[in-house]
Design goal:
Blueprint: E1 4-7, E2 14-16, H1 18-21, H2 23-26, H3 33-46, H4 49-58, H5 67-84, H6 91-97, E3 104-107, H7 111-118, E4 123-128, H8 134-140, E5 149-152, H9 153-156, H10 163-173, E6 180-184, H11 187-196, E7 200-204, E8 217-218, H12 224-230
Parallel strand pairs: 1-4, 1-6, 4-5, 6-7, 7-8
Antiparallel strand pairs: 2-3
Helix pairs in contact: 3-5, 5-6
């Protein structure tokens, strides 16, 4: 039985405003929706196994663009500029901009309603790879009041998928891992990390990146209350 649900923030509850995040690239050309989806797929599928874990435990933190996130966004923007045929020289700047939490301000349209429904039955918390300001991101999005604890990699110095950041969350909430669910959007970072910490895990996968994988997934946050209740 699930008693506590932990959430990823970026890409799960709140998304980047691309007009700000990718402004240097958009000044040259406008990507099609298919370009953005293809870049997401390329980045998520590129992250597997020990390479992600090695980055998580060896790199220095202190910003959202820690080694894991930096690798993810570099892969994402490399795929995007390749599809658009311009902006290759902007990769370092674009990757760095993804580390600025000020660009993350688009709240998933069903996030508040979903959290409102869940908090009647579960304890809720956040475990996020961020720049030390995930509280500000959630407050700006009006979601901060739903969570009992916020674990921010920029504050604790450990980045997902390292199991230690999940253990920080479990200890803060005094929750048992087998009764805890982690909800995120990237298999190698969120799903595998949570599972290695002994937690249950679920992917929010609206574009079907993991449709053919043997993983627990939903297409929208709105499906989460029913999914959790069935467990």
């Amino acid at each position: 039985m699930i008693s506590t649900i932990f959430f990823d923030v970026g890409g799960t509850l709140i998304h980047p405003e691309m007009s700000r995040l990718a402004a240097p690239l958009l000044a040259r050309a406008q990507p099609e929706e298919s370009h953005l989806i293809a870049a997401e797929r390329a980045a998520k599928l590129a992250f597997h196994g020990n390479a992600v874990m090695d980055a998580a435990v060896s790199g220095e933190l202190g910003s959202h663009a820690g080694p894991v996130n930096r690798g993810y966004w570099h892969t994402y923007f490399a795929a995007l500029v390749a599809a658009m045929g311009c902006g290759q020289e902007l990769l370092p700047e674009l990757t760095g901009r993804a580390g600025d939490s000020d660009h993350w301000c688009l709240v998933d349209p069903v996030a508040a309603a979903t959290l409102e429904q869940l908090r009647c039955q579960y304890r809720l918390a956040v475990i996020s790879n961020a720049d030390g300001h995930i509280d500000r991101v959630l407050r700006r999005g009006g979601l901060d009041g739903y969570f009992e604890a916020l674990i921010d990699s920029g504050c604790v110095g450990v980045e997902k998928p390292d199991p230690r950041i999940f253990q920080f969350g479990l200890e803060r909430m005094q929750a048992r891992p087998e009764q805890s669910l982690y909800v995120g959007d990237i298999y190698a970072i969120d799903y595998q990390g949570a599972r290695q910490a002994g937690m249950q895990a679920l992917l929010v996968d609206p574009n079907g990146v993991y449709r053919d994988w043997s993983v627990d997934r939903i297409a929208s946050l709105s499906e989460l209350p029913r999914w959790a209740a069935e467990r």
